[in-house]
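Researcher: Next entry in the queue.
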Amino acid sequence: MARVSLRRRLLGPPAVAVHRAAVGALAALPRKSAPPGPGPVRFVLQHAWGMGGTIRTTLTMAEHLGERRDVEVVSVIRRRAEPFFPFPDGVRVAALERRGRILSRLPSLLVHPEDYAYPACSLQTDLALVRWLRSLEGGAVVTTRPALNLLAARLAPEGVVTVGQEHQHMAIHRPRLAADIRRHYPRLAALTTLTTQDEADYGRLLAGSRTKVRAIPNPVPPSDAPAADPDAKVVIAAGRLNLQKGFDLLIPAFAEVARRHPDWRLRIYGSGPERGRLQAQIDALGASDRIALLGRSERLGEAMAEASIFALSSRWEGFPMVLLEALGSGLAVVSFDCPTGPRDIVRDGREGVLVPPEDAGALAAALDALIADPAKRRAFSEAARRRAGDFDVSAVGERFEALLAQLGAQERSGRPLVSDGLDERVER
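Model: Structure for this entry, 428 residues:
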């Protein structure tokens, strides 16, 4: 994890104290009691116009639900004229923020200072969020990051079903944010996690509360990407060039493998702050003719089609969507079994190989063995495409719809949520 800056050490505690006082004062005000009943499903994103896995999967789920329900996507901020991902037909998308006002120049009091969304928010977004949350009548609100989960839990009217989503694993939260999660998540009707590990961790954290914790993975958006070539002598990796993605571990691992398989190549797609250091590492290993940093690609599916193996070397993840894209392309996988996500997506020995986290030697050995075994690559490739179907939006969407239906029934009856087999998970 990144070091805590001096600025955060000095200013963090008072900023969190002010935040807690402000939200506490608002939460103490009388809230209207909306009559429970069927109503729209409202997804709340930090920035619906931006790019990122949470945005993409939320829009995918909204489109799926929108075929049968009234669905709206609400964006706290808007910083682009055109959305990075196309908005789904039949789904309303609205931004709360109005730029250019005096309040937009002042820091937020309501967004938790230890949530990574904090720098993008302001008193203007605070005002818009409070007005919007307190105006809700019935239906469900689905928030997609900790700061928004906390606000929905504490400020949404009675009768509105509140569903928080966690898109990163539990251990990554900063300490004071984690403390407020423990304190206030029990007010949510439900919390969805992306992995079974986080489901278990949050289940223990929220034991005894009314909050139902369920693991529901991100859905795979529809794709017409071409199939990978199991005979291609290319290993592909993709992600932001930063410490988290562990390319500094993958590069020496592949350089070792390439000495035994000189006709194989590693292509790494992505941009980020570590590019210079990674290129220097490649040069120092004398591997610049076999390992290439190719920058960010808008056509990653086509790049995957030119490879036969996908390597994931992350030190930690939430739920690596790029791994699902790799399966959908039919790539055999070699991955660190890092927290969290890979083991919920790839079954060791069936679609690929999982090796101990941050063990570059084990990563090299797994790559070496798969490169030397074309028949296994083909078997993994066929299994990968079948596995991707388990994460199709229709399958995942059915589970999310069933959860919303049960929560709505619970809200209307006032009875606790009972299990009816909805805890079944994607086979591991």
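Model: Residues 77 and 97 are 5 Å apart (CA to CA).
Researcher: Noted, moving on.
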